[in-house]
Amino acid sequence: MRVLVSCDRIGRLGPAGASDAVAGAFAGRGAQVAVAPVSGGGEGLAEAVARFSPGARVLAAENLRQACDMLAEGPDYLDVTAVTAPELGELLELPVTPARAGTTMVVPHREAGRALTGLTGSLAERGRETGAGIAAALAEDSRAAAWLERLGVTDRAPAGALCGLGAWALGCGARVASGIRICVDGYRLSELAAKADVIVTGTDVLDLHRRGGDVVAELTRLGVEALRPVVVVAGRNFVSSRELRLAGIEEAHAVTPPGVGEIDITAEQLEALAQRVAGTWTW
Hints:
This is Glycerate kinase. Keywords: Kinase, Transferase. GO terms for molecular function: glycerate kinase activity. It comes from Arachnia propionica. There is one protein chain. By secondary structure, this protein is an alpha/beta fold. It has helices at 15-27, 43-52, 64-72, 88-92, 122-130, 134-151, 165-171, 179-187, 189-195, 213-226, 241-246, 267-281, and strands spanning 2-7, 32-35, 58-60, 77-79, 104-107, 175-178, 198-206, 230-237, 251-256. It folds into two domains: 2-38 and 187-280, Rossmann fold; 52-180, no CATH class. The strands form two sheets. It has a five-stranded parallel sheet with strand order 2-1-7-8-9, sandwiched between helices. Strands 3-4-5-6 form a four-stranded parallel sheet, sandwiched between helices. The radius of gyration is 21 Å and the shape is elongated.
């Protein structure tokens, strides 16, 4: 039996630790296991990148100034998922310095699909959230369009990531992508999913609102495309079996029942859960 294990953070375990704990249970039952930790950003991203690209340099910025300084250092990956989306005026003042060839700026997963201007652009969305009038929104779009022209950047995703930080990075010659996309490409997860008999992913909380977050959503998408069952292990699960199947998930297993308050899940607890799951999915 071939199993793809690709988890996000679970409890106190980062993506790598969580994936290894789950993978060990399946390997112990004789399964061939491919382990591919996935993260959208933060410390977990550095863990994941180290698995498919040992030696790659990952820097993480906490604010706009750090992002600007760190891009000049030429890392392989610059994680800006913790940076607050800047105002357009702040971006206009940033120097446009050529980035090292091969540098990728890592943005939040849902930001990677945004353009900057227009009715569906990130600037318009922020304007609606802040209650800006139509005249102000049009003026902001006009300034942004002129800036994009100076940068030589076409206004399509991911230029609108973090309200234009993506466009600035593109103008500097960097690539812009989400951490999850970087992991999917780095591991060649589409190929691994197609070769697996079952896909196991994991998250802290599986609920109706986020359904486990972006990592679970991406692994579920890969499973649906490859016609492979997807199993989720979680700290807690609030989703019924019917709702899971509607979301493309075969089943979910949790360390603690829904009524239990938040706990700090340990490796031992996750391993015990994984042993039970592996017992029903190995042959």
